[in-house]
Amino acid sequence: MDNLIVFMTASSEDEAAKISRAVVEARLAGCVNIIKNIRSIYSWEGKIEDEAEVLMIAKTQKHLFDPLMKKVKALHSYKVPEIIAMPVVDGSEDYLDWLKQVTG
């Protein structure tokens, strides 16, 4: 399982676009989808927070996860940004070949 889906959140669509463009330009992800208008309820520093956020879904390869995570952290406004990965169990061979071609 060499391919990953990486979920990340951001405070705004502009921040998500900046991060997404940077990781695609650096060939750390082949594609990032940006989904606006999500609502996140989470525990932070002893309080329950309820905030509007933007979700990013990046498609990448496992060997690129660490550099992708470092790039996102460097660009992100959050002290502890959400960056979690899940393996791609299967997928279109054409798509997965394309992903391998466009990432580092």
Give your account of this protein's structure:
The protein has 104 residues and is α+β, with helices and mostly antiparallel strands. It has a single domain (3-102), classed as Alpha-Beta Plaits (2-Layer Sandwich), CATH 3.30.70. Helix content is 33%, strand content 40%. The chain has three helices and four strands. It has helices spanning 13-25, 65-75, 93-102; strands at 3-10, 31-44, 47-61, 83-87. It has a four-stranded antiparallel beta sheet with strand order 2-3-1-4. A hairpin with a 2-residue loop joins strand 2 (31-44) and strand 3. Helix 1 (13-25) runs antiparallel to helix 2 (65-75).
Protein topology:
Elements: E1 3-10, H1 13-25, E2 31-44, E3 47-61, H2 65-75, E4 83-87, H3 93-102
Antiparallel strand pairs: 1-3, 1-4, 2-3
Helix pairs in contact: 1-2
Sheet-strand content, in percent, reads 35-45%
> Can you count the beta strands?
4
Rg (CA only)? 14 Å
The CATH level-2 architecture is identified as: 2-Layer Sandwich
String of helices and strands: EHEEHEH
Per the CATH scheme, the topology name is: Alpha-Beta Plaits
Number of helices: 3
* Spatial separation of the terminal alpha carbons: 17 Å
Describe the main β-sheet briefly. 4 strands, antiparallel
pLDDT average, as an integer? 96
